[in-house]
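Notes from the pairing session

We agreed to fold both candidates in a single pass and log them together. This is the raw record for the first candidate, unedited. Please don't reformat it; downstream parsing expects exactly this layout.

Candidate A
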Amino acid sequence: MDAHKEAAGPAARYWRLLRPPPHDQGRRMTIAEFDGLPIAWTPPPGAFAASPAGRFAARHGLADARALADRAAADPAWYWAAGAEDVGIPWMRRFDRVVDLSRGVEHPEFFVGGLLNWADFAVDRWVREGRGDARAVEWEGDDRSTRTLTYAELKKDVDAAAGALRARGVGAGDVVALLLPMVPEAIATVLAVAKIGAIAMPLFSGYGAGAVRARLVDAGATALVTCDAFPRRGRPVELKRVADEAVRDLPALRTVLVVRRLGTEVPMTPGRDAWWHEECATARPVEQAEPVPAGAPCLLLYTSGSTGRPKGCVHTHAGLPLKIALEARHALGVDETSAMLWLTDMGWVMGSFVIAAALGNGGTAVFFEGVPDWPAPDRLWAVAERSRTTVLGVSPTVVRALMAHGSSWPDRHDLPDLRAIGSTGEPWNVEPWLWCARHVGKGRVPIVNISGGTEVGGSLLCGSIYQPVKPAAFTGPTLGVRTDVVDEQGRPVRGEIGELVVRSVWPGMTRGFWGDDERYLDAYWRRFPGVWHHSDLAYVDADGFWYLLGRSDDTIKVAGKRLGPAEVESLLVADERVVEAAAIGVPDPVKGEALVCFVVLHPGVDAAAAADGLRTAVREAFGKALAPSAVHPVPALPKTRNGKILRRVARASYLGSPPGDLSALEDAAVLEDWPRTGGSGSGKPRSRQRDARAGLPRVS
């Protein structure tokens, strides 16, 4: 019998949300109704005490999760120092001070005087402690080929790669770029670079040559690690060709190491290019990690460009690796028994997240090459099952796309090892969240929402495996981070939409933008002096649950009324005719701004009728004053390659303005027939109406 059919009380209401009565079809909960959302998942008795966070709290005399959160918020420096001990940072020299703010809150220094190395923290110490035979990496390729590496084997690969890089002249402070798919060599490269004190710069494997070159030039990279080619949907992607075009006439870039992934014949430039495996086999291994200051850079992560020109975020050895390992341990329950699979690319922050979270806690990093719906729509669930994944990370975009294939695909996989579903990247809609909770989590596994960003080096808001969960919500601020919601004057607000800010510093925060400190200060510190302004819209409900509603720079103000795009988009995608939606504000001589919506419809839907009906639905939900001036059916939305909707691009293209940086845009052809100001709001899509199931974000 289906256990969900026996649910009673709040749980029954939770499951009924999946199948609303006929008259409610297409209706979506709005901000005003968040307070009425039921608890969707409740932890079993003793969950906190049995979790890594609970054991940590007990050691420090803290009785429960609330006591832990309060202590961490009241004294973040205590939490970071105690947390570093909890994850077992192997200091080569212990720090003198937890944090130094002498340069201001904008430029904190953490663990002053301490020496360590990320590679030693992530790999070497486990071998020293006798866990060399434990599973460190589990990999499945696009072609179903697999590899498993123990910690001893991973250390051997890291040591060899570090020796190869050092033999090619790479040293402390040099930037080494990675243009690699999700293969084990990517993990070895990142940690090898860190091991010799250099800086790893992972790049998205789907970038074109222009985007790669721009980042190589901006960072002053001296070396690049790429591969000959890799498979995607069974077809080769010629990555070396992209690399060759990107590095042409770049004298500062002296080395290109090529991983042999498919065995494809590729041109090799004498003196510059060399095969990865040959260099690793002949170089002298670097067995001991270089002791570096806690504040030494180890990662340079470029943002996807969803907020304009890409920014190079600088992360340190005792920053992002520690922050992520700690929050994964205390929120997701990651420990030495865990296996983490996150659907991502090495070029996005979540690629580094998996390495830091899994290996930093002695668990297993599961790397997935390919896409989640090929060769069948259950590929992601099947890989999770085969790899014995305990923490599975997805984005709402991926879940929405896989929903289109039906629930029978996840239903055939029990996922017995799964303990938590992690989610990041964008705000949820309630329906996909519920679908994922029921058909992937089987009603027993919590969805742990986390939100931060490339600049954050971890999360600002999160849920946990030991606290009740509401659909699409966060339990609250991440431990040790003083997050708040404020109005336009910077005053705290509850019960209304406000700006997400942080009133403290944390180890994972970027130490600035590479070569552009003024832009860093403008982006985060000058809106509310002394307070980190994250440019997200947030809401805290009556029960203390937090929600994100999209970027505040996407906020729509119609006749003085603030409207988050996610509110409108949530209502639109609840309609059975709609696959995806984007909402923007455009100049209006009377209202200041007018609401304009773009919708991707299922094949066969009458576009004109749908546009008229959706406009009516928004008007009825939000009032006449907030009715859209137009609803435009479109074949696809402009998105980054990891699935984020680029509303600024949609808006600029609609207004005929320059769209800015498009290097992260998945498909530039989307903009060719994009509606323009004054166009019909109820016409048919102008080209290429495509099946939503073909619209999955690129993840490899």
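Candidate B (folded immediately after A)
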Amino acid sequence: MKKYISVIMAVIFALAFSLSVYAGGGGDTEASGDVGAAVEYGKTVDAVSAILMEADSGTVLYEQNADEALCPASVTKTMTMLLVLEAVDSGKISLDDMVSVSENAASMGGSQIFLSPGETMSVDDLLKSMIVASANDAAVALAEYVCGSEDAFVACMNERAKELGCKNTHFENPTGLDDTASGHVMSARDIAVISREVIKHELVYSYSTIWMDTIRGGAFGLTNTNRLIRFYKGATGLKTGSTSKAKFCISATAERGGLTLIAVIMAAPTRDIRNEVAKSLFDYGFANYSLYTDEPEEFEDIYVTGGKENLTKGVSSGFSVVVSKGDVGKIEKVTDVPEKLSAPIVKGEKIGTVTYILDGKSIGTSDILAAENVDKITFWSLLKKLGSWFLCSPPN
């Protein structure tokens, strides 16, 4: 009897994970930030909300109640990470900069590295402490250093969220501490969008993949709050969070075979369940999907009429989409570039299209853009061109 029950349960589980043939985004997915429509595979996860997103295209592969605004706990720090990483990459601050800790930063509760007022620590070690050990005092010290004050940093957090199209997010602090915060919320979808932006800064992986490390010359140990990086193949980050209000949350990232996935779990009942849900979503994504990528391509010798130059070049903007495993080799490209263009042509102007076809249907497009300016020829330019041609022509 047990054997038959096991077989039945296995069949039910397999059916629950069945899906349609294609789950990709449209051609403008990369450019517009539109994360597309989720594919429901019939399984409800043990959390209030969850989402699985493919990072390169932004395609959503699974979602459950993904737009509900919930307490995010320390997953808040995905935005704190983003603003600090952007400040580093832009040259506004350096990893070697020494930060003087304020009384405000040192007063943070929860997870911390026990910073003292007046203590100095490098941006590098503060970032490591925040990302690896979820240190609230390190997060506030970085926030104050980047923007001058915690309040100014929070304003930047909310502005950046708006820029990214986050519709169900509001920040009140850079830590996620919610004992006094009443309106500090994020949705699983918004967290995935922010996390997608974070991992565009590859520097984050040098911290988020650390299991154990030290600061203060080896005197203080750090252990990653994200157990997935040690126990799940391909896990690369990103941020955990838990409070009595938020329960157990995570924004997890993993990569296998060129496919990068983001799994966000909100309000799971326990840490272990949160991690198991993330792993099951990753397993589902890696088992069923592949990433098709078409790199930018140059198109030469496009004829131009009425221009100072007779020929110009174009370049496609590139394209990526998630498809069911086995479909990558079935995708066809159809290029549409006019035989001739009319001047003037402005660099970056759309001059053609690449359409991607799967099973006879378009799954997206990529624009072909002018690679250079071509000015319209004037009367005097034409005379000069003709004169040059006559002078260079050999006599009969």
